[in-house]
Amino acid sequence: GAFGIVYKGELSSSNSRTVVAVKKLDKLANDGENEFKTEASVIARTHHKNLVRLVGFCDEGPEKKLLVYEFMSHGSLADFLFSQSRQQWNKRIRIAYGVARGISYLHEECSTQIIHCDIKPQNILLDDSFEARISDFGLAKLLMKGQTRTLTGIRGTRGYVAPEWFRNTAVTAKVDVYSYGIVLLETICCRKCMDIAMENEEEILLIEWVYDCIHSRTLHKLVKDDEEALSDMKQLEKLVKVAIWCIQEDPNVRPSMRRVVHMLEGVVEIPMPPFPN
């Protein structure tokens, strides 16, 4: 994982055994020692069906900072989306909605707002029922001071990083909205946001290809050979429009995650978005 090594473990009691994921944290901030228990307590108080639940933690000095999470049997959204076989459309849609609701909860419904700062398919796990579960939330504050931005690039997730990370401006919850927009496009198309293996040059950068398709009214190209998606074009167009709103360059133009959920659920109308620069 981005914040340290993850081990598969087991919690045993007199009458049961529970499989867990144990994350050994490294790279804590200088004041991370003091913050660890506070942040772990904040994480432990979050309860939502689209978040990975923290079962407990261990704090025995600088070298033994452990977070114990429930184990997710179906791996990550990255494994699910980028495998050889295209996954079911309805299953992908449910995952996309679940991720939006989970981020909205972190932003709007926690006692302390949690900005994830690293939303990407590798940090979205799938449970026994293929429900999306966001992991690694609440950990950004525990990173070494001044490294949150550089580490985001080093982790190889630049495609998901909002432009304001590189402008030395205040980072807000809108960075997660941007990242969600990219993840939503990848979920729709079952491909990575940048893929140099694409035969057609115009398809290498997913954002540009999506915009070309929506304006030339050829959205069907995004889900070629996906019969379920091709028979659900109204939903496809809605999802693409939501994603483009999320990836607007100006964070003030991006909707909040609560509004994104309302867009997805059909509570509010979705006008045609402007093209991000």
TrEMBL record:
<protein>
    <submittedName>
        <fullName>Avr9/Cf-9 rapidly elicited protein 256</fullName>
    </submittedName>
</protein>
<dbReference type="InterPro" id="IPR011009">
    <property type="entry name" value="Kinase-like_dom_sf"/>
</dbReference>
<dbReference type="GO" id="GO:0005524">
    <property type="term" value="F:ATP binding"/>
</dbReference>
<dbReference type="InterPro" id="IPR000719">
    <property type="entry name" value="Prot_kinase_dom"/>
</dbReference>
<dbReference type="InterPro" id="IPR008271">
    <property type="entry name" value="Ser/Thr_kinase_AS"/>
</dbReference>
<dbReference type="Pfam" id="PF07714">
    <property type="entry name" value="PK_Tyr_Ser-Thr"/>
</dbReference>
<dbReference type="InterPro" id="IPR051343">
    <property type="entry name" value="G-type_lectin_kinases/EP1-like"/>
</dbReference>
<dbReference type="GO" id="GO:0004672">
    <property type="term" value="F:protein kinase activity"/>
</dbReference>
<feature type="domain" description="Protein kinase">
    <location>
        <begin position="1"/>
        <end position="275"/>
    </location>
</feature>
<dbReference type="InterPro" id="IPR001245">
    <property type="entry name" value="Ser-Thr/Tyr_kinase_cat_dom"/>
</dbReference>
<keyword id="KW-0732">Signal</keyword>
